[in-house]
Amino acid sequence: MAFPTETVYGLGADGGNPAAVAKIFAAKGRPQDHPLIVHVGSIDSLPLWAAEIPAAAHKLAAAFWPGPLTLILKRAAGVSDCVTGGQDTVGLRIPGHPVALELLRAFTGEAGGHRYSGIAAPSANKFGRISPTTAEHVRAELGAAVDAVLDGGDCEVGIESTIVDLSRGRAVLLRPGQITPAQIAAVLGAEVDLPDAAAPRAPGTLESHYAPRTPLHLVLAAELPARLAALRGRKVAVLARAEAPSGLQHVHWQAAPRAVAAYAHELYASLRRLDELACELILVEAPPAVPEWQGVNDRLRRAAST
Ligand code: TXA
Ligand code: MG
Fold it and tell me: Which residue has the higher pLDDT, 111 or 85?
């Protein structure tokens, strides 16, 4: 079943049922060794999934949950390899969306000797493609491969959660998102490190991900006019915070919001729309290279084909 979260739509299954989780991999076409995030409705469910809940996890949970933050913790005994991708850690978050929270709270209990307390869910898109931020995106992308889609409207945040690894005694940023390393550091009173070779694998951090089918190039604002002039006569789409210059009949110009939250909120829907125009090329004006834009810039870099 697909369900809305505040970040993107997830494709969920009982995290305690390997057969159900296997169906997610089949629907997405996702490699089996890629771990899934387990969504829980309450911090009380954490001990069922995590063997160690360090003080840092409690602090970050209190500050940001429900919300767009995933914590990587040492996994509890009995957590299935198909959820963790065979790693000794598990990704956990309480999503900040009323429909997701209602679903998760209803999905906490015991029946027939089976205890259920978490929904394993990746983003509800085909592997490597743009994450869905509306129920319609999920239906268009997964079609009959998904039995039901809970429609919770547009996802507010629009890009996937920030992922922080707390499994090795310090905080390591595995995937940037709306919640910035500075916000996390302020809560922890300690810096957030960047991943090194020993960090857990996070496939959302593969170089090519979140990608439209149309080739996408990131272009500095100052270089956009010259690029467009060089492409005269070709069918090109542009996503830019700048105003459209006049006299560009060959260009489909999509205005993007100037503020980061609004930009992220619209980003994936805009990329899908531009992809559908079947242009030769999508040019995206590179947003500012500043920390608040790190999550957006990360997704755009991975969406870019060169
Ligand atoms: O906002 C989100 O996080 C969305 C919504 C649906 O919650 N979910 C999402 O799931 O983006 P997915 O599967 O598309 O990306 C999850 C990321 C992957 O990069 C995966 O590698 C990483 O989380 N991850 C999950 N468990 C992990 C673990 N134990 N160690 C390292 N990375 C993990
Ligand atoms: Mg994903």
Answer: 85
pLDDT tens digit string along 195-226? 776 665 665 555 667 889 999 999 999 999 99
Nearest atom within ligand 1 for CA of residue 205: 19
Helix (H, G, I), strand (E, B) or coil at 164: strand
The rounded Cα 155 to chain-centroid distance in angstroms is 11
CATH of 2-188, one of 3.90.870.10, 1.10.3300.10, 3.40.640.10, 3.30.565.10: 3.90.870.10
Question: Could you say which ligand is closest to the alpha carbon of residue 162?
Answer: 1
Task: Tell me whether the CATH fold assigned to 2-188 matches the one assigned to 216-303.
Answer: no
Cα first-last separation, the chain? 34
- pTM for this entry: 0.95
Mark out the alpha helices in 7-87 (DSSP H runs): 18-28, 46-49, 55-64, 81-84
Does any ligand 1 atom lie closer than 6 A to the CB of residue 80? no
DSSP SS3 for 165: strand
CATH architecture of 216-303: 3-Layer(aba) Sandwich (3.40)
Tell whether ligand 1 has an atom less than 6 A from the beta carbon of residue 158. Answer: no
N residues, the chain: 306
- How many angstroms separate the CA atoms of 161 and 7, rounded? 6
Q: Are strands 281-285 and 162-165 parallel, antiparallel or unpaired?
A: unpaired
Q: Where are the domains of the chain?
A: 2-188, 216-303
Closest ligand 1 atom number to CA of residue 10: 6
